[in-house]
Design brief:
Shape: globular
Strand content: 15-25%
CATH class of the largest domain: Alpha Beta
CATH superfamily of the largest domain: Aminohydrolase, N-terminal nucleophile (Ntn) domain
Oligomer: single chain
Structural class: alpha+beta
Radius of gyration: 24 Å
Strand order of the largest sheet: 2-3-1-9-8-10
Helix content: 40-55%
Largest sheet: 6 strands, antiparallel
Number of strands: 19
Number of domains: 3
Number of helices: 29
Length: 628
């Protein structure tokens, strides 16, 4: 895994400032500590930080074609590069290395933009073609690898793996994006294509961008792939389970190519355990596995990881994280650059830290919940949809909207009496209902959170529009498939994959995600929805398929997630820090918040009246961003 950086003069061939490009590149040293490289020519500068995984002795970047008219800086792994190399050699291309990077320049020469259709893997790259005077940027289909970019006021285009590299450029405008702030306090992250700055965008997953010298305007990125959700030919359950195992095994196998120590994360959950089971069946040597234990038994699942490790005789490494391991709070602002409110970033950082002591590459089980319908919220959404379906929205909205408004909020009461949330959900359409279910702060609470001036600046914008835009182009209208699709476009790249990328790269660790192999994703998307969620059981087919490989108490226990005791921290050891950060002068000065409401949130939480841990964590992480 690596870090990439580039400067491209859109207007003319002005010289690129080498010292500035190197400074931008150096901010990403952690992504590639093995070596760095720079290429300069009039109007173009490409830079690279390398973490050596394949072809350790060569493969330095930026890397060229035979006559050095095409050059690339690239972050990722293309797993089918051996097959592509043979095909390109047969077409007359000459290779000087044995690494996957060189495939990109020759594939561009042979197929142009369509080269990305041939790549199987995770990638983000910038490629300069001198003959065509073209800069070509592309990002992998699921958004495993990041890519930020900006067009500066002086018509220079800059791009990088992380926002911090762009922030090293003195001409980058740093005005906050009001809509991105609204999105952040709804989702807990800033969804693509926005960033926290108005001047910076993220290249969305499965998109490419083609720039030419002399262009006056920045073109819009173009999509080259989407999750199809096209129904497969009729298949019975047993055949589907067998095919699923075969597809997963093959996706794992191609991700075990490396010339450095390789292992896997093992949380004890279904997804990581399934990946380890497949790895064990493919390797003659014990699989290296890594997991962390929590001192608090309410959050600890290490015994399940141990159970899988013992079954497959893995070389297992485990460390315990103290329940009060909040020393990383100040580190997160530097790590993520933008506000990022997923508190599981803390244990993710620790497990990456542990893994890097033993391996350079780790396979993970990320993507299983989105792909195979594992989240509990999918079950809740299905239940709400069954209630919505009999009545049209025009009738539901006024009727249940009024009931939701007047019915008292009763979080303390038995579930049967907590009807307010249900009434509110029934008054909404499907997308809006799902949005409220995944929001950290629902609409009425975000309205209270923001100052009157900031609400006016939003001009009526609501973060639900992110989901609405994706829903409008979704290839499915099935209630379950639709919300899976929405998560694959938002939560998966914006939260899950961002969290893992930054935490792993902070330790120069490459993480590979076989369950997000795009061929596997395409195949699973075509399965009947009731093979994914049946009778309240998420990942139904996956669990059935894994029964010969994993014990039932791994497959069918209640999912815990990678949680930390934030609520208890804010009432105990972090109580003073919470007040200092959420109610401090920095938050006053930024002018975005209603400070009286922030004070109410802190008071209600610290006195035990309400659990506001999620919104308070998002506020602390926003303060961490401001502090930079």
């Amino acid at each position: 895994m690596c870090g990439i950086t580039g400067i491209f003069d859109l207007r003319e061939h002005r010289p690129i400032n080498r010292a500035l490009l190197e400074a931008m590149n150096q901010t990403q040293f952690h992504r590639g500590p093995d070596e760095g490289g720079v290429h300069l020519e009039p109007g173009v500068g490409l830079a690279h930080r390398r973490l050596s995984i394949i072809d350790l002795s060569s493969g330095q970047q930026p890397l060229f074609n035979e006559d050095e008219t095409v050059v690339v800086t690239y972050n990722g792994e293309i797993y089918n590069f051996p097959e592509l190399t043979k095909e390109l050699q047969q077409a007359g291309h000459q290779f000087r290395t044995h690494c996957d990077t060189e495939v990109i320049v020759h594939a561009w020469e042979e197929w142009g933009e369509a080269c990305v259709d041939r790549f199987r893997g995770m990638f983000a790259f910038g490629l300069w073609d001198r003959n065509r005077q073209t800069l070509f940027l592309a990002r992998d289909r699921l958004g495993i690898k990041p890519l930020y970019y900006s067009l500066l006021p002086n018509d220079q285009f800059i791009f990088a793996s992380e926002l911090k590299a762009l922030m090293a450029h003195p001409d980058l405008p740093r005005e906050l994006d009001a809509q991105a702030i609204e999105d952040y306090f709804a989702y807990g992250y800033v969804p693509e294509p926005r960033s926290i700055f108005r001047s910076v965008q993220k290249l969305p997953p499965a998109h490419l961008l083609n720039l030419r010298h002399g262009q006056r305007d920045l073109p819009a990125p173009r999509a080259y792939w989407d999750v199809p959700f096209s129904a497969l030919p009729r298949i019975d359950e047993a055949e589907a389970a067998e095919a699923l195992v075969d597809c997963l095994r093959e996706a794992v196998k191609i991700r075990q190519i490396a010339e450095v120590p390789l292992g896997a994360f093992l949380s004890g959950g279904v997804d990581s355990s399934a990946v380890v089971a497949m790895m064990a069946g493919l390797s003659p040597d014990p699989v290296r596995t890594c997991s962390i234990a929590f001192a608090d038994p309410a959050y600890d699942e290490s015994r399940y990881a141990q159970q899988v490790a013992q079954r497959y005789q893995t070389d297992h490494y485990q460390e315990q994280v103290d329940s009060d391991d909040f020393a990383l709070l100040d580190r997160l602002g530097d790590l993520y650059d933008e506000p990022f409110a997923d508190s599981s970033a803390l244990p993710t950082y620790r497990v990456c830290e542990l893994a890097r002591r033993k391996v350079v590459v780790a396979l993970s089980g990320d993507g299983g919940d989105e792909n195979l319908a594992g989240y509990r919220r999918y079950r809740h959404h299905q239940a709400e949809e069954r209630l919505r379906r009999p009545l049209p929205l025009g009738l539901r909205r006024p009727l249940f909207g009024a009931l939701g408004h007047w019915y008292p909020k009763a979080d303390w009461a038995p579930r049967i009496f907590r009807a307010k949330t249900t009434f509110q959900a029934l008054a909404r359409d499907s997308v809006e209902g799902y949005f409220q279910g995944v929001s950290i702060l629902r609409d009425e609470l975000r309205s209270k959170l923001f100052s009157p001036n900031f609400r006016r600046e939003l001009q009526g914008y609501n973060a639900v529009e992110v989901l609405r835009q994706h829903a409008a182009s979704a290839p499915t209208d099935h209630p379950l498939s639709l919300v899976q699709y929405l998560d694959m476009k938002t939560y998966l790249p914006g939260d899950i994959l961002t969290k893992v990328d930054r935490a792993s790269m902070a330790h120069a660790l490459e993480v590979r995600v076989p369950i997000l192999d795009h061929r596997l994703v395409e195949w699973i998307s075509g399965l009947p929805p009731d093979l994914k969620l049946r009778g309240g059981e998420g990942k139904y087919l996956f669990k059935k398929a894994m029964e010969p490989y994993l014990p039932n108490d791994i497959l069918y226990r209640r999912k815990k997630g990678f949680a930390v005791p934030v609520s208890e921290w804010f009432r105990g050891p972090l109580r003073d820090s919470l007040r200092e950060k959420v109610l401090g002068q920095r938050m006053v000065d930024v002018g975005l918040f209603d400070m009286d409401y922030l004070n109410q949130l802190v008071k209600q939480h610290t006195t035990g009246q309400r659990d506001h841990s999620a919104p308070l964590w998002s506020l602390i992480m926003f303060d961490a961003f401001l502090s930079r």
